[in-house]
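Observation: inputs received (chain + uridine 5'-triphosphate).
Thought: call the complex predictor directly.
Action: predict_structure
Action Input:
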Amino acid sequence: MNKPVRKAVLPVAGLGTRFLPATKCMPKEMLPVVDKPLIQYAIEEAEAAGIEKFILITGRGKNLMEDHFDHAFELEQILEQRGKDRELDLVRHFPEPSKIQYTRQQQAMGLGHAVWCAKDFVHDEPFAVLLPDDMVLAERGCLTQMMDAYNHVGGNIVAVTEVPRDQTNRYGILDIEDDDGRLARARGLVEKPAPEDAPSTLSIIGRYILQPEVFDHLDKQIAGAGGEIQLTDAIAATLDSVPFHGLRYEGTRYDCGSKPGFIAANVAYALQRDDMEADVRAALAEILK
Ligand code: UTP
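Observation:
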């Protein structure tokens, strides 16, 4: 039996420079897709996958996120007085206080460093990492699909997708040993390889199930590609002792860390909504005319 995955780490301390000036005072994870911030989608995906406890690794804008996952008494009172029950439900949906924690990454030293900040929260259990700016629109949540795979193969699992070869230098890329078309067992991984050096075109997106052994490497605080402490280096360091798989998830991924990806996500999620689909379709048709 593989140890259950009960905890999730959500790194939200990046600078979000691609969205300036919107992210000057606000973390990019508070940007809304349709009407919900990215961070809330990530928490809901994790809850649906059975996660019980969350830690947000924050930088600037910590208060904004704490407020978002807390009661807004004045607003709730007004909504109550006006009989707006549906809206009340929407603002009251968040994890109980005992289930959500926050810690500061005092310097944005890379994703590996952000995850390392959760070491005392994770202890010696397997855990999930979700990057809220990667969204996967799917019938079954991406992390739920990964949990299914984890229950079969254990170890470290990442969600993967094929990228064009000329883009390998933007992603963590798997070196594949064995592949059944859905689950690929990897013997290695490289962070941002040049296209000619990339061992494959299978790239990691922002969903991980990891074993606590990754902290042995993160403890050493070694900077990797781009001078940042890389999570992929920590996973690579455990390859001899921990099996490592990439799961080709079902669904469509939107890179909401990039402007085109963020706009596309807004359109795609709006088209899923019964209350908006027709209007959005009509507006798009008008724009594209
Ligand atoms: P990105 O690579 O997208 O960086 O981080 P960024 O700073 O957020 O955005 P840009 O490139 O400046 O526009 C991927 C994820 O890792 C988190 C980010 O918050 C995001 O969820 N991260 C990154 C940290 O929490 N700490 C870091 O030091 C770096």
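Thought: report the result.
Final Answer: The pocket of uridine 5'-triphosphate is lined by residues 11-18, 28, 57, 105, 108-111, 113-114, 131-133, 257 (CB under 6 Å). The chain has eleven helices and 13 strands.
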